[in-house]
Amino acid sequence: MTNSISPPDNSVVKEFMGNASYSKMIKFIAKLPPEQIASAQNAIDTFSALIELNFEFKQKTPYFDPTKKIRFNVSPIDNLEIWMGYTPNSSSSFTKKDIHSISENVNSTIQDLFPYGSMRDALLNELFSEPVYLKEDNWDKKLRKLQSSIITKSWFSDKTLEFIGLFPKARRIKRKVFIFAGETSSGKTYQALKRLKAAETGAYVGPLRLNALEVYDELTSEGIVCDLLTGEEKVVYDGASHQASTVELMPFTKPLDCAVIDEAQLMDDEERGHSFVSAILGAIAKEICITCPPWAVDKIKALCEMVGDDVEVVLLERKTKLVTTQDPIYDFPMQQATAIVAFSRKRIFQIRKLLPRDLKVGILYGGMPPEVRREQARKFRNKEVDVLISTDCIGLGLNLPIEHLVFDTVEKFDGVETRLLTQGEVLQIAGRAGRFGIFDTGYVSGMGNKAHNYIGRMLEEENHTVMLDKYFAAVPFFFVREFMEATGIQRISAALTLIYENVNFDSQIFDLTNIDVIMENLIFIEKHAPSLDPQEKWVIAHMPVQIEQCERVFYECLQLMSGMQKNISIEEGILNLPCGKQDTLFELERLFAQVDCVRWFLNRFPERVEEFADPVLIEHIRKRAEKKMNESVASIK
After folding, report:
1. Which end of the chain is more exposed for a tag (fewer CB within 10 A), N or C?
2. Residue 272: Cβ within 10 Å count
């Protein structure tokens, strides 16, 4: 079969190649098999067009080979090599018009991505020694990725890369810090809020949604325009001067006259402590009011002085007496202004059933919808209910008139194990009994001898609560978001990787949050729920549940949050497996992880999850699983 390729025979091509190379090329072309003829012809046409346009090009062969990729330089800058590639194919060649168009498009994109000035200089410095190779189908992505890399380096070069340096705006102002320290009901939060109300602009951050909601109500009732921001609620007003929120939503980019950080001893909490540390370090406020018990003062003061703050400690005495009743409680009391503290929602409802049906009872727990929580607290304050049954959320700054507080138990599940309450926890909760101006004495009891004696001992003994040596630390979300907006990086996981590669944490001072687990979580979330808000992705990634143990249920929760699913299915069938086998124990561990995953979503996003996952049923499954596991352990021989 005769070869039908037309070799480039114009004088420009011959002069460019030289006679020897031209002859070799002609001989090579003559030997090509028929199936390569069309693509070779297109390569020759592209080759000719490049020569006529005087474009720099190259191949990996000593002479032109119409079967190999042709690279040609499209850089708008003389000393920079940006090469576009043409791969021989039977469909098309690059005409002179195509080459001009490609070059103009690349140059235009480079002008957009790397405008003249510092960014262009960064490009030259970055790429001067190495050529950049682009592909016809994704060259713009390659340039954008390159831009992101350069912007990242430029962005970090302007930052102090120590953890404390992640808050430059806070470091640029002189901050006065007041630490209001005292026992529960000593007026710590009251004193802090007085200063907040007097400030033209301010923010309150606390550990619970209930705290934020209460402060929001108080400020609003006094005519202060205040936003409410928690993981679940968002009430925003034009021109608001104040904000009340959970600690994770501290406004790190907003200059303030006053910031209140409530219950700052929780900086020692393994899950959320880093948020309190970041709030203290990063508040851009002329005045910061921190509340805590006396045993947390030294650690908080040291952190503030570490960054040069002027610190004043204000010690406050408890305003009412706190007394342990002489005898334990065996039947739940029904007198007005009584609060019963339990440590699970399920137990709250069990206690309610034990009380007379006609008794007016209020219920309070962290996962309640905000409107319900607000109404329950209001009814108790206004004596519309006699008895309040609450979880330990009652111990963190809630403003309630309690005369008698009863501990249902002195044990709680802390997310890892069931353990005795610490002395600090007992003091925090028990201290809610008594209310200045209403009840001069607060009474505390335990249900049964064991609980009552333990409570009495914790209240009588000198407080031995000791803070941890180090501060929990993690890159705050505002810094991640700032970085993503500046660089154009879309995925939080990619941004976080680059940040942790560039930021230094002093291991003598800070205990870094486990980033490996968070990264795994983020990658999973970004894959299966890309439509979620970045803030929600960030919060979910910090969920204290081993996702690999409950991946399907976690996926269903994500889909539900994204509006893609209407149910969550927990593997209750595991409860029917035979006891006495190790495999049953392993399966029960998986079931526990599934239940805890759903419980976490219920607590964090109740209004988006409770419609599709019954909290009472979830608690029932968990109790059955606990019983089954105990039976299985006892049966293994």
Report:
1. C
2. 18
Domain boundaries, the chain: 11-157, 164-316, 321-460, 491-635
Q: What is the pLDDT of residues 403-459, one digit of tens each?
A: 999 999 999 887 677 899 999 899 889 988 988 778 889 999 999 999 999 999 999
In which region does residue 563 sit, left (phi positive, over 0), alpha (psi from -120 to 50) or beta (all else)?
Answer: left
User: Could you give the CA distance from residue 239 to residue 241 in angstroms, rounded to a whole number?
Assistant: 6
pTM over 0.85: no
Which has the closest alpha carbon to 69: 52, 55, 83, 51?
83
The second-level CATH assignment, the architecture, of 164-316 is: 3-Layer(aba) Sandwich (3.40)
Report residue 588: phi and psi, to 5°.
-65, -35
User: Which bin fits 415, alpha (ψ -120 to 50), beta or left (φ > 0)?
Assistant: left
Q: Where are the alpha helices (DSSP H) in 158-187?
A: 168-171
Q: How far apart are CA 45 and CA 66, in angstroms?
A: 10
Q: Are 175 and 284 in contact (CB under 8 A)?
A: no
**Main-chain phi, psi angles of 180, to 5 degrees:** -90, 110
Distance from C-alpha of 70 to C-alpha of 353, rounded to nearest angstrom = 81
Instruction: State the DSSP H helix or E strand holding residue 471, giving kind and residue range, or none if neither.
Output: strand 471-473
The answer to whether domain 164-316 and domain 321-460 are alike in fold is yes
Residues in the chain: 637
Checking if the pLDDT of 636 tops 50, the result is no
Q: How far apart are CA 78 and CA 85, in angstroms?
A: 19
Q: Report d(CA 582, CA 207) in Å as an integer.
A: 40
Pairing verdict, β 70-73 and 57-58: antiparallel
Q: Which two tokens stand for residue 475?
A: 């890159």
Sequence-distant (6+) residues with CB within 8 A of 394 are: 339, 341, 364, 388, 400, 402, 429, 432
Cα-based distances in Å from 34 to 23, 41, 44, 90, 530: 21, 11, 16, 12, 49
Q: Residue 556 and residue 138: Cα distance in Å, rounded?
A: 34
- Phi (first) and psi of residue 192, to 5 degrees: -65, -40
The amino acid present at 313, given as its one-letter code, is V
* Dist CA 182 CA 433 (whole Å): 15
- Cβ neighbours for 200, distance < 8 A, ≥ 6 positions apart: 241, 257
